[in-house]
């Protein structure tokens, strides 16, 4: 499943992916504020279904792809990413999510925070990722 199939659209200062949680909980996938794009937490949910159940690494890669699509829709690129926040539900997932972040952002070197949480909105979700980007 590719991120482009999600069909993100930009509406001025907001980016919407059409994801089920955006509509249900009343938020945008990303907000464009001046030279910044702030992306809401992304999981491996595609077309309403959690992908890669049980695989934290692949969930992280999918979440990053979704978040980067929102950054692009906001007019910035991967090289503009300045902050990555990630949330995992199990201690053993830190290295798996970290590996995905390094593969995508290793040359960019944004600031990064990883947090272990009690759970995410769907128990099949293992990783959630937020990204902030700034036009240099």
Characterise this structure.
InterPro entries: RutC-like_sf, YjgF/YER057c/UK114. This is Enamine deaminase RidA (YjgF/YER057c/UK114 family). Pfam families: Ribonuc_L-PSP. By secondary structure, this protein is α+β, with helices and mostly antiparallel strands. The protein has one domain (3-134): RutC-like (60s Ribosomal Protein L30, Chain: A, 2-Layer Sandwich). Helix content is 27%, strand content 32%. The chain has three helices and nine strands. It has helices at residues 20-25, 56-73, 93-105, and strands at 9-11, 14-16, 30-33, 36-42, 45-46, 49-50, 81-88, 111-116, 127-134. The strands form two sheets. Strands 1-2-3-4-9-7-8 form a seven-stranded mixed beta sheet, with helices on one face. It has a two-stranded antiparallel sheet with strand order 5-6.
Reported CATH architecture: 2-Layer Sandwich
- Residues in helices, as a percent range: 25-40%
E-strand count: 9
Q: Regions with pLDDT < 50 over 5+ consecutive residues?
A: 1-6
CATH topology: 60s Ribosomal Protein L30, Chain: A
What is the CA-CA span between the terminal residues?
31 Å
Q: Helix tally?
A: 3
CATH class equals Alpha Beta
The share of residues in extended strands comes to 25-35%
Q: Any idea what the CATH superfamily is called?
A: RutC-like
Spatially, the strands of the biggest sheet line up as 1-2-3-4-9-7-8
Which structural class best describes the helix and strand composition? alpha+beta
Largest sheet: 7 strands, mixed
